[in-house]
Amino acid sequence: MKTRTIPAAVLVAAAALTAAACAKPPTAKSLVQDAVTAMGGEKLRAVKTITMKGGIGTREQLQESQHVGDAEKPGTLANVIEIVDLAGGRASMNYEIDNDGFKQHRHEVLTTRGGKAVGIEYVDPRPVVATSPGGLFSWGTQNTPVMTLRRNPIAMLLAASDAASDTAPVDDKTFNYVMAKHTVVTTAAGDELSLYFDAQRKFLIGVETTDTEALAGDVPAQYSFDNFKTVDGVTLPHTVTIIKGGKNYAGVAFASAVVNDPAVEKEFEIPEAASKQADEAIAAGEFSPITLDKMADGVYFARAYSHNSLVVEFPSGLTVIEAPYTDAQSATLVRVLKAQFPDKPIRYVAVTHHHSDHIGGVRGLAAAGATILVEKGHEVPLRTILDSRHTHPVDELERKRSAGEKVGAIDVYEGRKTITDGRQTLELYAFSGSPHADPMVLAYVTGPKVLFQSDLWFPGTGGTGNPPAKQLLQSIRMLNLKPAINAGGHGGTAPFAELEKAIAAMK
What we know:
This protein is an alpha+beta fold. It contains twelve helices and 27 strands.
């Protein structure tokens, strides 16, 4: 009988097929673990801090347009440095932004004191301040360093590794026009992460999840990671692209990275100038510095470190003009007013214009029960911010609505609104033509002749006239108002003659 010899190549191929048939199909746990191994293994798990340097890119969805609905140019980001402390729950965003000619160097820090979270904000030329973490406002890659830490690719990968299941399935799915391995993991923090991995290199290349934006609320978010480089045995993406609500949000390409740099500790130190405020922020829970200065009988200037409000007292309650920046600032204002006026609720809050930094606190004041007065030209973005869901995390307005508790509603008016009670009268006027935002709303308290406006003129700063201020003065005269005192959403308070003098000096 003849012996038949089977070629070696056939034996190898058969063995490979047998092994493939016997191999277990990948699961979420194995897929995530393969990515951890490919991107550094134990070195990746030992990462405490990551510093990304030399970033350039763009930031969109700033909501700073002249008219509601106008297409906005992307803000340009430069000299971006982002630090995440995975071990200590801290993060820093340091960058320069050019928003269509408006330039700022901003630096927002999430740090800790005694195990409690604190926010530190440095914005040239303002003084450094401490807030609660929710009091930080950013135009960087994210709207807060809290989100920078939470959506760091390594942070999400390690959180998925801890939570991934052996039974959860894996499938092939297209991500950014490339076929990738895909699975879904719900982390211990409750985040559902839809994860995409490079089929060959096994790196994490994308995440889809839900983010809660300060103005838009809960939105679908997509994170894309590219330009992988190995740093001290750890492979990190150096390009990050973010889409939120189906629109471009941010994109940054970093030049370099450092892992576990001991020098970052200085980044998270609380400066002496903000040390007392840091203690106040920890004690209060939600905090942003505010002092209440009396301007006239029944009229008060709520002076914040950047964005101010006006408070008008009536026999039956209070009206606030401007709910800017953050809900932490609104929460502080509510406490300050409750201490000053224990028997008077905040009945109304008036909005001056639709820009993001001047409406960021409206949800907090609506949660306190205030009716939000909105000029018709600002209705669309204000309805979005007030009606949207905020579940990642849950804010006070979301909590109260879900519990069926009473909250403030939106009240839309057109052109002019008057609030009068007893001997106090407040008039709101919308005017058009401002090069800053159109329409703009100014508030006028008729008795003491106090006028409040935002962004067009910074009272008490000794500034020179500018086109928005000139147009403001023209509108005041067309409305036949006779203010004696000017108060600003920025700056402070000053005799109205200061504005008239500055405009007269314009060439």
